[in-house]
Recover the amino acids of this structure.
């Protein structure tokens, strides 16, 4: 245990929140912007340092950098316990990096009421770091909600659609996600109450439940609560309809953070909490879950994605579709499959954030999200085109990008689970190639459409500016880095997921 | 009466034990005196005397939390002092203090006598404090009636307004009905417990302890169960639980905003303090009856409150009906209380978080309200965020907490109640509660949406409506609102000693 009174993990959570509070209390704008840079940089720095340092750090039951703070609820086993294990580290890094990119992008954007916008993003950032650094299941949930609330407000106020449409989207997202969060909360409370450990501490819960597992039928019920509740949060078909609508309306940085990082909370909780604590429960539901994921998320939503005309809506649907692969990996419940899920979460988080960022950049140049009215943008903005094509290829799962490893390992694990589902899931890759490549072709290549020619005449489009390039580069470079050197993450993921055998324990 | 008995009785009259209540009542009298003595010019300072009195008692209570009388009976068993009683004392004094601050804001807009308002608030607060510590049905009823009569006056305080008068009358009629139900229940219990033919009958059956002993010895007495149901219905009127919630929307709309806050928070809190005592100790051997009655009430209250609030446009009716749903969540905690040890603490925590958040919202309402206090529509909040960002922020925090959104205190309250309910095995009620929470998001969010996302819509004829003159936020009121908002956030993150005290009970 660390004896530091102000631990780096706590710093990564508290710094953005403290700066947000300072802005809320009326810091002048100049200072707010300067401090916001620091607020986004600190978590990213902590995350990268943790990534670098993790392999060599001393660990206790798989967790490094453990620290515990009391909030007065020790009586019912709640305390702010922070630490990272092999599964949370990749997502912690993801949160730090996507947060930095989204923050930098927001700082350079000309959003109205920038101060409040930054404040909400910083709250979100603090919550995101908290989700993946928490070992206490209560705080896991708590930080998720903390990060979720700003999304609702940002969609409503800074949304990219009309006022009433934003308002409708905000309302729909709020109600869906609250329902999902409530169901999962009850699932977690059930887990806590029936475990008999009188603790929300994941380490204690694991140790206790390994010795006295919950009765099988109860496990089925609790797993159902968690799968449905968290499924809503991760946009499991047919409860996904909030996602495209919400992402279509959300302002760029909020969409980047939500689709890229926050949405992973549901998958992360399934991998980190539900699977180890309720193995029989999830095994019971694995086949229905896999079928919903493959038929609903991958095939049906995939076909819907092809039919989209609106660029942002399309990216929203494609992110729903990719969640299907993650659910498939969870359904296999094998070390390889889960490792694939964690890798895919990171890869998808980076690539979808990049796509949302670029979509807005495209909008600034074409003044529309309708893909049919674009065309030929590559001539005016070659760098933007290169970035977009790279991001699309990543999201399809081309080798060289991190997504490839995630999907590949999931397919490998899935073959053992059910060859039929594997075949259907692989067909989904073709679907994503169709819409991905078609959108790139429509936007960037071919002759400029009339509508675009008109816009281009009045506002000659420039190529990607540095303020857009830097955040995009952060995301793309990480995607490539993990793509070419997946071992940088997979070693620790593997160590965390492999059940402790004597040899591993001795190491 | 022999002189010895009088002496014995006098010895139990530990006046020191009710010093906080005595101080409040003395200040109430002092206010009236001051109004006569002071020249007209200085009447403006009289409300601050009331506020300072509340603040002083609050601080004194805080530092004397573990007073010498803790866990003792005084006044021949009329009162029982416990740490939860101390907590509720703080609760009521805090509520009284905030009502005084809101009163300053609201009364300034009306041409009404001002001093009596504070006088009655002080007296009502003192009687609530006695009620929460009562241990005997006589004191219980007297304290309850004192507070109800005080509230009759307060509800119809803006007597120039027709809606206010209607509210006053409705409250009077329904209040009288509830009091008579309650009294009838008490009489039945007293009568049956005094029947010498039954085991452990008692001559002093109004005393909670004696009554509990009698009920334990006769666990299936028909008359006693009728009495219990009647007493519970009487209390259900006070907390606005279904099917006794019918007076709430009209009374909440018509009553002056500070009084609405008082009704919504303190009066409800008093009802729950009493209900906890009754359900947890006195009626505990009738769990077979009390639990199903309260469970059905809780489920219906949560659903009714939330569904009825969905269609409201008047914010006072909205907050009233949402308050009904909060009563339902609290009832869930009360039902769980005999079965799960942490439920009592959860109810207290919920009450405190509800107090802080509600007063934040009511504070904003008092500021936004125009000259007609009953006319406060959702549309009036359009553009609030742009024009008065401070009020809008406080409103958002308060409503978020009422909706139970983390990291605000209201979430922790709901969370504790849910854990307690789960541990007590109330799965059906929990499912209802979840539905309630999701519905409630819709209307709370609608209100926030009105304040943040919408701008003022001009009437179609193109005339610009005269911009309402905004009264600047006073220093005290502003500080109070800021503290409430900040308190809501802090209590959501860090429960500290309060959490420790509540969870380790």
């Amino acid at each position: 245990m660390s004896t530091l009174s102000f631990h780096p993990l706590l710093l990564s959570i508290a710094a953005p929140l403290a700066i947000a509070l300072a802005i809320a209390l009326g810091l002048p704008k100049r200072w707010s912007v300067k401090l916001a840079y620091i607020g986004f940089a600190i978590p990213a720095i902590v995350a990268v340092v943790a990534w670098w340092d993790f392999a060599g750090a001393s660990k206790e039951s798989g967790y490094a950098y453990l620290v515990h703070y009391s909030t007065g609820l020790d009586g019912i086993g709640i305390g702010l316990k922070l630490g990272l294990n092999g599964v949370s580290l990749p997502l912690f890094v993801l949160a730090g990096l996507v947060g930095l990119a989204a923050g930098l992008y927001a700082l350079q954007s000309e959003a109205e009421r920038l101060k409040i916008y930054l404040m909400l993003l910083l709250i979100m950032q603090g919550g995101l770091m908290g989700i993946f650094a928490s070992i206490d299941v209560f705080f896991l949930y708590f930080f998720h909600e903390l990060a979720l609330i700003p999304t609702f407000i940002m969609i409503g106020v800074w949304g990219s659609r009309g006022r009433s449409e934003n308002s409708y989207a905000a309302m729909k997202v709020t109600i869906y996600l609250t329902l999902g969060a409530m169901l999962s909360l009850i699932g977690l409370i059930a887990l806590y109450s029936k475990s008999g450990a009188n603790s929300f501490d994941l380490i204690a819960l694991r140790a206790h439940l390994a010795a006295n597992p919950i009765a099988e039928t109860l496990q089925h019920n609790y797993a159902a609560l968690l799968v449905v509740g968290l499924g809503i949060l991760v946009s499991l078909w047919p409860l996904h309809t909030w996602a495209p609508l919400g992402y279509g309306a959300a302002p760029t940085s909020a969409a980047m953070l939500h689709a890229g990082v926050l949405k992973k909370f549901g998958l992360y909780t399934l991998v980190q909490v539900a699977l180890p604590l309720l193995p029989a429960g999830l095994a019971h539901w694995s086949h229905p879950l896999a079928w919903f994921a493959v038929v609903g998320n991958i095939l049906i939503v995939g076909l819907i994605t092809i039919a989209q005309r609106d660029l942002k809506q399309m990216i929203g649907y494609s992110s729903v579709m990719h969640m299907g692969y993650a659910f498939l990996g969870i359904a296999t419940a094998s070390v390889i499959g889960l490792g694939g899920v964690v890798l895919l979460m990171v890869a998808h988080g980076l690539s979808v954030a990049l796509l949302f960022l670029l979509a807005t950049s495209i909008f600034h140049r074409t003044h529309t999200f309708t893909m049919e009215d674009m065309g030929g943008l590559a001539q005016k903005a070659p760098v933007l085109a290169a970035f977009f094509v790279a991001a699309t290829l990543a999201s399809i799962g081309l080798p060289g990008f991190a997504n490839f490893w995630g999907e590949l390992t999931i397919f490998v694990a899935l073959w053992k689970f059910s060859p039929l589902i594997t075949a259907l899931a692989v067909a989904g890759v073709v679907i994503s190639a169709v819409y991905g490549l078609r959108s790139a072709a429509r936007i960037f290549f071919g002759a400029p459409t009339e509508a675009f020619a008109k816009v281009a005449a009045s506002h000659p489009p420039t190529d990607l500016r540095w303020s857009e390039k830097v955040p995009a580069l952060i995301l793309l470079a990480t995607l490539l880095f993990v793509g070419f050197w997946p071992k940088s993450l997979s070693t620790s993921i593997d160590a965390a997921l492999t059940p402790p055998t004597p040899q591993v324990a001795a190491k | 009466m022999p002189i010895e008995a009088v002496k014995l009785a006098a010895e139990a009259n530990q006046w020191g034990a009710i010093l906080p209540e005595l101080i409040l009542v003395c200040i109430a009298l002092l206010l009236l005196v001051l109004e006569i003595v002071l020249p007209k010019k200085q009447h403006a300072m009289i409300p601050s005397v009331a506020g300072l009195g509340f603040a002083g008692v609050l601080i004194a209570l805080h530092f004397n939390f573990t007073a010498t009388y803790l866990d003792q009976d005084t006044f021949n068993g009329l009162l029982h002092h416990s740490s939860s009683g101390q907590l509720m004392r703080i609760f009521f004094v805090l509520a009284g203090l905030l009502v005084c601050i809101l009163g300053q804001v609201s009364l300034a807009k009306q041409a009404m006598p001002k001093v009596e308002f504070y006088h009655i608030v002080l007296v009502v607060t003192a009687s609530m404090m006695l009620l929460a510590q009562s241990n005997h049905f006589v004191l219980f009823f007297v304290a309850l009636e004192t507070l109800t009569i005080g509230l009759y006056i307060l509800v119809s305080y803006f007597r120039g307004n027709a809606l206010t008068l209607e509210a006053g009358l409705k409250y009077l009629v329904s209040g009288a009905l509830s009091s008579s139900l309650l009294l009838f229940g008490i009489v039945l219990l007293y009568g049956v417990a005094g029947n010498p033919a039954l085991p452990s009958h008692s001559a002093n059956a109004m005393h909670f302890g004696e009554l509990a002993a009698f009920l334990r010895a006769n666990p299936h007495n028909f008359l006693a169960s009728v009495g219990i149901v009647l007493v519970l219905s009487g209390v259900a009127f006070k907390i606005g639980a279904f099917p006794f919630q019918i007076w709430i929307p009209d009374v909440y709309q018509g009553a002056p905003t500070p009084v609405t806050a008082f009704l919504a928070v303190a009066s409800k809190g008093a009802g729950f303090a009493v209900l906890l005592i009754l359900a947890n100790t006195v009626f505990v051997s009738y769990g077979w009856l009390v639990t199903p009655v309260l469970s059905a009430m809780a489920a219906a209250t949560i659903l009714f409150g939330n569904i009825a609030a969905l269609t409201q446009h008047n914010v006072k009716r909205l907050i009233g009906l949402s308050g009904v749903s909060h009563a339902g969540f609290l009832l869930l905690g009360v039902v769980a209380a005999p079965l799960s040890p942490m439920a009592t603490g959860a109810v207290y925590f919920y009450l405190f978080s509800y107090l802080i958040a509600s007063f934040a919202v009511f504070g904003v309402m008092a500021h936004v309200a125009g000259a007609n206090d009953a006319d406060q529509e959702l549309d009036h909040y359009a553009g609030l965020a742009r024009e008065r960002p401070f009020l809008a922020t406080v409103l958002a925090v308060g409503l978020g907490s009422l909706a139970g959104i983390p990291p605000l205190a209201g979430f922790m309250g709901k969370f504790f109640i849910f854990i307690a309910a789960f541990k007590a095995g109330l799965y059906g009620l929990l499912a209802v509660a979840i539905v309630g929470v999701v519905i409630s998001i819709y209307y709370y969010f609608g209100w926030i949406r009105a304040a943040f996302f919408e701008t003022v819509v001009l009437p179609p004829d193109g005339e610009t409506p005269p911009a309402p003159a905004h009264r600047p936020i006073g220093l005290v009121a502003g500080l109070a609102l800021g503290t409430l908002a900040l308190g809501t956030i802090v209590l959501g993150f860090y429960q500290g000693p309060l959490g420790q005290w509540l969870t380790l009970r």
Summary: DSSP finds 20 helices and two strands in chain B. The longest strand of chain B covers residues 72-74. The CA atoms of residues 439 and 457 of chain B lie 27 Å apart.
